[in-house]
Amino acid sequence: MAARKSHKSASCPVARPLDAIGDWWALLIVRDAFDGLSRFGEFHKNLGLAKNILSDRLRNLVSHNILKMVPDEDSPYHRYVLTEKGRALFPLLVALRQWGEDYCFTAGEEHVRLVDRRDGLPVTPVEVRAQDGRVLMPDETVVVRQASATPTT
């Protein structure tokens, strides 16, 4: 199998995070962490992937400061909890989930749905908005190179 290319020096903010979360297992681990799972065994049981792969993905998420290991008061082991950086992935996962609800299920097919814990209503669809509050579509945006803080010579 070919080695994966690292994007750690890419100037694209879509490419660079892929070193941390570009693997589907990584996103599923983060999803499960949002759902309250925190122990290796819980992730293993829920995801059903090989222990060595799970261990590798957890190690990668910890090294990218998305998860952190904390002592487990109830056992000699530790738990994995989301860091602030990891919790900041919530809108990304909600957008992915909503896209999946809209495009990856047939009409009437049963699936899980994200709802507001307080009132049980579905979460409003994620939208991209301009500074003035307008909803933006792809043809209303453009990618520009941000000037670096220090001039290059």
Task: Describe the 3D structure.
The chain has 153 residues and is mainly alpha-helical. The chain has 6 helices and 2 strands. It has a two-stranded antiparallel ribbon. The chain starts with 17 loop residues before the first helix and ends in a 50-residue tail after the last helix.
Summarize the structure.
The protein is mostly helical and 153 residues long. The chain has 6 helices and 2 strands; from the N terminus they run ααααββαα.
List the helices and strands and how they pair.
Layout (H helix, E strand, L loop, with lengths): L17 H4 L2 H11 L5 H8 L3 H13 L3 E5 L6 E5 L1 H4 L2 H14 L50
Antiparallel strand pairs: 1-2
Order of H and E elements:
HHHHEEHH
Strand order of the largest sheet: 1-2
Mean pLDDT: 91
Helix content: 25-40%
Low-pLDDT windows of residues: none
Alpha-beta content class? mainly alpha
Note the total helix count: 6
Q: Could you give a short account of the major beta sheet?
A: 2 strands, antiparallel
Gap between N and C termini:
40 Å
Number of strands: 2
In terms of DSSP E residues, the strand content is 5-15%
- What is the gyration radius calculated from CA atoms? 19 Å
* Basic shape: globular
Offer a few descriptive terms.
mainly alpha, 153 residues, two-stranded antiparallel ribbon, 6 helices
